[in-house]
Amino acid sequence: MTQPAPVTISEFVNSWFDTHRAEVISWRRHIHRNPETSNNEVETTNFLCSILEEYGLKPHRYPETGLQVDIGPDTDLGRVAFRADIDALPIQEVTGLEFTSEVPGVAHACGHDVHTTIALGLACAVADFDKAHGLPIGVRVIFQPAEEVWVGGATDVIEWGALEGVHSIYAVHVEPKLRVGRIGVRTGAITSATDVVELEIKGPGGHTSRPHLSSDVVYALGKVITELPGLLSRRVDPRTGTVLVFGTVNSGYAPNAMPEAGTLSGTVRTADIAIWRKMQALFTELTEQVLAPTGVEHELTYHRGVPPVLNDDVATALLAAAATSIDPQAVVQAPQSSGGEDFSWYLEKVPGSMARLGCWSGDGEQHDLHMGDLVVDERAIGVGVKLFGSVVDQFSRIED
């Protein structure tokens, strides 16, 4: 009598999600209704712990908010890890969904509720596989707080031991410009380093009829705004995607008075980690050179943010293979984004890859991230759970 072929991890997770679809969607809607901002994710953490414990798991809470959970054995290879960010944004939701945010001025407008639900679904599905068949490798699921604040909660989570014994790490980010079912992959930089600059300029002030008797703060601000981006483009390879944009400028109070002070702030972004590492020194040098002829005094504050997310080539190939095993048409080339993402801190320590997860229904408006009207097609949750399940399956074959 022919014995049936043993079920694979991917097949099990696919079947598990199809059976538990309504339950998983209800988790997402609960999280969406009850958003919590960065470092305040207390009830979200409690909810995640309660679900994981129902499935027989023993989550490890971080000192403040967030948690991680291990499934399966420790092996010489190390664990495959998955990261989900659990915080929401201080934004008013205007979607009108039946499960809209019940917290005024706070909403999951970046899709973190979807990321969290996918990771939670994976953990529960893999736990059930482990009970039924025994996992051959170890899995770790990380529920990270505070992705949306400077410089990201990933640095704390890493300090708390999230990467100890980890071989590689994976994540997804919803993409409302991509149709649901599509998975965007990219080797190398998929996001950019993001730094913030603040410049304060001071001078004696005076009357606009006698500019020669004063240092012109407004003129100095104008020189920085117009000249610094151009100078930067001549000192940095344009293929690195390095962009300086100022977002605020403030000075003055009357048309005939030369102010004594002014401020300027903006962001510097680059997809090249080598450029990022030397950017502060270069920016300081160019600012001093631009302002030297004006006679003003200045104080530059340079806030280093997150490095670019640099997807490892081997990990990205595994991620693409996992996506293709679900749907041969799923994989598309993800564009390089100028946005920042603190998943990059994990990739400074271990190899890994982040994918773009399509969440547009294919009909109607394509909403954008960090907007109160963001609507995610919930079919993306199933795609994400099955993708991660396939990654676990692919990873388990490394030891073969």
Provide a descriptive summary of the structure in words.
With 400 residues, the chain is an alpha/beta fold. It has two domains: 9-190 and 309-396, Zn peptidases (Aminopeptidase, 3-Layer(aba) Sandwich); 193-303, Alpha-Beta Plaits, CATH 3.30.70. Helices cover 35% and strands 24% of the residues. The chain contains nine helices and 16 strands. The protein has an eight-stranded mixed sheet with strand order 1-2-4-3-5-16-6-15, with helices on one face. A four-stranded antiparallel sheet has the order 10-12-8-13, covered by helices on one side. A two-stranded antiparallel ribbon has the order 7-14. Helix 5 runs antiparallel to helix 6 (273-291). The protein starts with 8 loop residues before the first helix and ends with a helix. 47% of the residues are buried.
Strand content: 15-25%
Radius of gyration, in angstroms, nearest whole number: 24 Å
Number of helices: 9
Number of strands: 16
The structural class is alpha/beta
- CATH homologous superfamily heading of the largest domain: Zn peptidases
Query: What do we call the CATH topology of the largest domain?
Result: Aminopeptidase
Q: What's the N-to-C terminus distance?
A: 27 Å
Short description:
Helices cover 35% and strands 24% of the residues. It is α/β, with parallel strands linked by helices and 400 residues long. It folds into 2 domains: 9-190 and 309-396, Zn peptidases (Aminopeptidase, 3-Layer(aba) Sandwich), CATH 3.40.630; 193-303, Alpha-Beta Plaits.
What's the layout of helices and strands?
Blueprint: H1 9-33, H2 42-54, E1 60-61, E2 67-71, E3 79-85, H3 112-132, E4 139-144, H4 154-159, E5 166-179, E6 183-185, E7 188-189, E8 193-202, E9 206-207, H5 217-235, E10 243-251, E11 257-258, E12 261-270, H6 273-291, E13 297-306, E14 310-311, H7 313-326, E15 331-333, H8 344-347, E16 352-360, H9 379-396
Parallel strand pairs: 3-4, 3-5, 5-16, 6-15
Antiparallel strand pairs: 1-2, 2-4, 6-16, 7-14, 8-12, 8-13, 9-11, 10-12
Helix pairs in contact: 1-3, 1-9, 3-9, 5-6, 7-9
